[in-house]
Amino acid sequence: MSDHKPLILVTNDDGITARGIAFLVECMQEIGHVVVVAPNSPQSGMGHAITISTPLRLYPTTIFPELPAYECSGTPADCVKLGKHHVLKDRAPDLVVSGVNHGSNTAISVLYSGTMSAAIEAAIEGIPAIGFSLGDFSREPDFSHIRAHVLSITRNVLERGMPKGVALNVNFPIKAAEPLKGIKICRQANAKWQEIFDERRDPHGRRYFWLDGEFVNNDAGTDTDEYALAQNYTSIVPCQFDLTAYKVMDEMERWNL
Amino acid sequence: MSDHKPLILVTNDDGITARGIAFLVECMQEIGHVVVVAPNSPQSGMGHAITISTPLRLYPTTIFPELPAYECSGTPADCVKLGKHHVLKDRAPDLVVSGVNHGSNTAISVLYSGTMSAAIEAAIEGIPAIGFSLGDFSREPDFSHIRAHVLSITRNVLERGMPKGVALNVNFPIKAAEPLKGIKICRQANAKWQEIFDERRDPHGRRYFWLDGEFVNNDAGTDTDEYALAQNYTSIVPCQFDLTAYKVMDEMERWNL
Asked: What would the pLDDT profile of A153-187 be if each residue is shown by its tens digit?
């Protein structure tokens, strides 16, 4: 690795055998040296979970025969931590990419998303990072329409660097008859899941629940990720990990505490 | 429940048998009607994880004999969802409180914190919410010094309501010889964990890793949660779930995408 190609750490939350990470690895090989550290099982909905109460396992895998690749028993955030501090301890990666997720991570889903937690974990470590998600939940999605955008967004980040404390949340629309219209810089839509619990009985007569929900968008803005995707654009939301609601601090100074 | 007392849902991330939730329940009983829905096992570090790939269990428990209380197989965020949409489906709670966590949730820890994910989940549902954490990791912490602050902060939130899209992250210092100096409204410190992986071999000769770390505060500000706690104040950080880095959006419009 004596050339000037960037070193790119690839992870995801659907697990190392998912089609989305295979596609992302293929794209990244056009740009740099690729190392894969990804979960050994699906981790959807894991949010920013980390593994602190049980030990972590990390094994080399031949699933990407030409590449250094490792499967990890932990969450996407664990994969980034192990990738940076163990696998790549002698040279920090120039970029961390996560995905391509099978399913969108727009609006409030950014909080539940393992894909984005990996990107945000990298941003915490000061490494430029992008989470990629496609609005297609199937196991065999068609990724062909997103390749040019994956490459162009990645090259922009590598050339320009990322503002401190920020990671990109990139969402692509499902493949349509028309080609993608372009890329929009967006804010996170004020849209959320309306939960429904599907109550059932197991064969032993005991109750259990499946969490299910309906996505409800009450945001009429035309500058949101949801709006861009509905118009067949790729959306990019720059995401920060400082959660402080600065605008509220002054108001709270007047509380009677 | 025909009086005008508020309905308060209590949860945590250390599990329903932890001392911290027993203390919080006791405090809340001075203020309102209390319902408990909490994890049946420790969920520290679970971040904003939700359970979507396995079914959830929810059982009534007699651990709080005078109260409606349920133990749940899921994460803190799951507990809030099940609490609101199933247990309290006929009357939404007026407040959700989470904790008191055994250990602090300052600075970047807010992202990894199950305690705060429960509070933020409630804020997403439009319910005022507070996560309480004490900087004492022991199993039997002394909570006596924080009771007045827990009550005063909770009463303020109930009287004033919370700004939309915000939940409070409250941290208390470990009990010192001197009484607490007061309460400070703070921003999230720019401080993080410097990861260390402790590599070991199991009895079968296979490698495993414990995630460990050292907390490093590179933030010299005197308006942070870390600073307030170090001065023996209780810190309150108002936290939002819109992660959009608005300041970066204009700059990104000039990218060559």
From this structure: 999 999 999 999 999 999 999 999 999 999 999 99
Q: Is the pLDDT of residue B195 over 90?
A: no
Which pLDDT does position A2 carry in this prediction? 54
Summarised one tens digit per residue, pLDDT across range B216-236 is 999 999 999 999 999 999 999
Report residue A1's pLDDT band, with 50, 70 and 90 as the boundaries: low
Structural domains of chain B ordered from first start: 7-189+221-253 (3.40.1210.10)
Tens of pLDDT, residues B16-25: 999 999 999 9
- Determine contact, residues A7/A94, Cβ cutoff 8 Å: yes
What number of other Cβ atoms are within 10 A of residue B217's Cβ?
16
Residue written as token pair 């503002």: A163
Chain A: nearest CA to B108, how far in angstroms? Answer: 8
Assess B154–A contact: CB distance below 8 Å, yes or no. Answer: no
ipTM: 0.93
B44 is known to lie in a ligand binding site: yes
* Burial label, B62 (beta-carbon count in 10 A; 0-12, 13-18, 19+): exposed
* Residues in chain A closer than 8 A to B180 (CB atoms): none
The answer to whether B144 is annotated as binding is no
Which of B148, B137, B141 has its CA nearest to residue B179? B148
The β-bridge partners of B209 are A56, B199
Out of A166, A169, A209, closest to residue B82 by CB:
A209
Give CA–CA dist A244/A251, Å, rounded.
14
**Mutation site, B111, B127, B196, interface A, largest A CB count within 10 A:** B111
Instruction: State the nearest Cα–Cα gap between A57 and chain B, in angstroms.
Output: 5
Q: Kindly tell me if the per-residue pLDDT of A152 is higher than 80.
A: yes
Show which of residues 17-46 on chain B sit within 8 Å of chain A, judged by CB atoms: 42, 44-46
B45–A56: do the CB atoms touch at under 8 Å? no
CA A222 to CA A219: how far, in whole Å?
A: 9
